[in-house]
Amino acid sequence: MDGVKGKVCVTGASGYLASWLVKRLLLCGYHVIGTVRDPANDKKLAHLLKLEGAEERLRLVKADLMEDDSFDEAIMGCEGVFHTASPVIKPSFDPKAEILEPAVKGTVNVLRSCKKNPSLRRVVLTSSSSTVRARDDFDYKIPLDESSWSSIQLCEALQVWYALAKTLAEKAAWEFCNDNNIDLVTVLPTFVIGPSLPPDLCSTASDVLALLKGENEQFQRHGRMGYVHIDDVALCHILVYEHDAANGRYLCSSTVIDNNEMVSMLSARYPSLPIPKRFVQLERPYYEFNTSKIRSLGFKFKPIEEMFDDCIESLVEQGHLSLHAADRRPPS
């Protein structure tokens, strides 16, 4: 562990990515205030309380994205705030009420609490690469970078509510922080792969598990996608928080590949798993990501093989997946 550092807040601390970020922050020596919906839910929070350093430097407090002033207690006195909390559920009836409003209003609520805190040094917001790539007017020969913004009109037309929510939430965050002189940095991860600390799988991990069990529905609609290790996303958040010169947006992606490339790699590494052999080729725009901005800070990404190996090992350990003896973890 590094030397003991300052106090930071992580919103939505029990989530898939947030849990890993809390783990990394504790290992770095930070005092962490994590916001959760129900601090008394021992079953849902047990994985956080078992983390190294949690007993001494982790405190969980109640907060709700849709309640005004809900984050005041958690954020007051913190030097840094990592806002990771955001709804990722698939809308069942009213996407505006279920995803868009909590994402945008929740982000502004957190930032209002940040504004009240004289100790605040920087806010790091977890955005998404979907705020960059949902557009139909880019040149596929030029990799997308942080200057690109997804088209709100296209997101609405295609009903890609997650991308729309993330785009509107990040834009609202920049507007609020620019108006109120708050130092904001945003991190834009691609599809996050890796070990899951919470026992209940989030939608992302569930989609990966379904793929490993032979289902292709969730991945079929993507066609081509960027991937990044969950540990890299957490480390990227900490890097841009600690690096004084960090500013603006940072794409966080190890690689971008087509579905068929991805399942070919996985099938070769795990031949006993009923991974789909091929996907129907969809007419999706070809794109790459330019991640030179985060790499310029010295960041190096783990390869896609490692992220899936770590993910599968975690799914096996938690009892979600079974492997044959012949499918021992291959060397990277």
Explained architecture:
- The strands form 2 sheets. This protein has a 7-stranded parallel β-sheet, with helices on both faces. It has a 3-stranded mixed β-sheet with strand order 7-8-10.
- The longest helix is centred in the N-terminal third of the chain and has 21 residues, at 95-115.
- By secondary structure, the protein is α/β, with parallel strands linked by helices.
- Helix 1 packs across helix 11 (230-242) and helix 5 (95-115) runs parallel beside helix 8 (161-179).
- The protein has 14 helices and 10 strands.
- The chain has a single domain, classed as Rossmann fold (3-Layer(aba) Sandwich).
Kindly provide the radius of gyration, computed on alpha-carbon positions and rounded to a whole number of angstroms: 19 Å
Strand content: 5-15%
- Proper CATH architecture: 3-Layer(aba) Sandwich
What would CATH call the homologous superfamily?
NAD(P)-binding Rossmann-like Domain
Cross-sheet strand order for the largest sheet: 3-2-1-4-5-6-9
By CATH reckoning, the class would read Alpha Beta
Distance between the termini: 26 Å
Summarize the structure.
The protein has 332 residues and is α/β, with parallel strands linked by helices.
List keywords for this structure.
332 residues; alpha/beta; Rossmann fold; seven-stranded parallel beta sheet; three-stranded mixed beta sheet; 41% helix; 15% strand
How do the strands and helices of this protein lay out in sequence?
Layout: E1 7-11, H1 16-28, E2 31-36, H2 42-49, H3 54-57, E3 58-62, H4 72-75, E4 80-83, H5 95-115, E5 122-126, H6 130-133, H7 152-158, H8 161-179, E6 184-189, E7 191-193, H9 203-212, H10 217-220, E8 224-229, H11 230-242, E9 248-252, E10 255-258, H12 259-269, H13 292-295, H14 304-317
Parallel strand pairs: 1-2, 1-4, 2-3, 4-5, 5-6, 6-9, 7-8
Antiparallel strand pairs: 8-10
